[in-house]
Amino acid sequence: MNTVRISLLCITGFLAAINTGVSAKTLVVATYNLWNVMFQWDSRKHYIADMIRQANPDIIGFQEVRADADGKRNQLKQLQSLLPQYQHHVFHSTKPVDKSKFGKNAIKGWEQEGLGILSKHAIVMSHHIPLSKAGASDPSPRELLHIQVEYEEHEIFFMVVHFSTSRKVQCQNAMRVINFISSTGADRTVIAGDFNTYSDYTWPVEAVQNGFFLPNGCPKPVGFEPVGAEQGYGFDDSWIQTSLDRDGGLTFSNMPSPGLVNRPDRVLVSRVGLEPVKTKLHGHGDAYRSGYSFSNYVSRFKTISRMAGRQWSGDKLNYTCHLDCGPHGSCRCGVCSGGGNALNCDLAYCTECSAAVYNIILFLYYFLIIYVIAAVYITFCIYAKHTQMRALRKLIICPRWFGLGHFTAYLLVGFMVIFTLVKGGLSDMIALTLNRIPEEMFPSDHLMVVSEIKVTYH
Fold it and tell me: pTM for the full model?
């Protein structure tokens, strides 16, 4: 009997060791179009951090990452402050943000946009290569951001891309990626990003997977030498490889109607050294609307208050939002409001955040401080009186005539003062805070693709 038990224990231990080894060599990667600072980034970043915690990727690549002109404020750095487990990051600016249409006196900040990566593992190497220049068909230059990390004694190569929206330029982007991969090798490589792939034009991303262009796809590139699986090149689409719903996996919502329509966001896994195991999508708008609606209102109120402070201090701003509010909204006091896109107002003419409004905010702020302190003081006095604690009454110098009736009257009068000021002076500001456009509670027009990958050889 003892021999049988020992044999069973040995077999169990052996199987556990095998399972431990497999899970230890399972890498989780993700890609997410951050959608720059659209619609109250100060509240949305907390939602994104929660989403990343839930998905728990080892490495995540981002597109449309914003930073200030001097680089001190950066969306990835702000996410890192909420996600301390991601100690390593890389940001590469691909273009300055064009704010010319907002006017000379537009609000400053978030002047750069580019690609970024957060990683739990040390980044051994990083560099970027150009994929296409800015031109008439696409005003945005396109680049590839490439890093190497050490994971379980393996070299893992992770690349982030954001392909052009122009079909012709998209083909050029694919060709440049293929050339780069053929020069570096495809072993243990992941290409993640927003490929801007739509159901009627899939050839560029298929070319990246195959190493060559199909004859019915992109124009035949001149001077291009294709590579293929026979050279150890080739990539699998993680969603296609791991999901039973091959026609699903849609990640682009087109805000908020007609809903999810295409799958531009993908994780491509090299066929040499890696094997996709599972792929999931995160970031549906319902979770944001149900869990972050109140924090979004708070963020809007704070933004409007800051704009009122800037007008009170004499700032002259003709456009106070860091973004275009689109066809359904106008920029007023730093937030996008409903009612159409023809209601933009310069700071000097925005009644919701005027200098008078800021005076009321300041008065309410100090009034509330005094109001609360006085309420606490009166409460202690009444408590000391009713418990016959003479020493406490002497310590806080309580008048003998304080009673519950006086306290109730004090609370009512204070409440009426606050209500009158809010109703009479801040009603427009509150209405603007509540007047969100439908897009605001869709935290991104892209979902996050998360892929679990097994390292198949050392």
Answer: 0.86
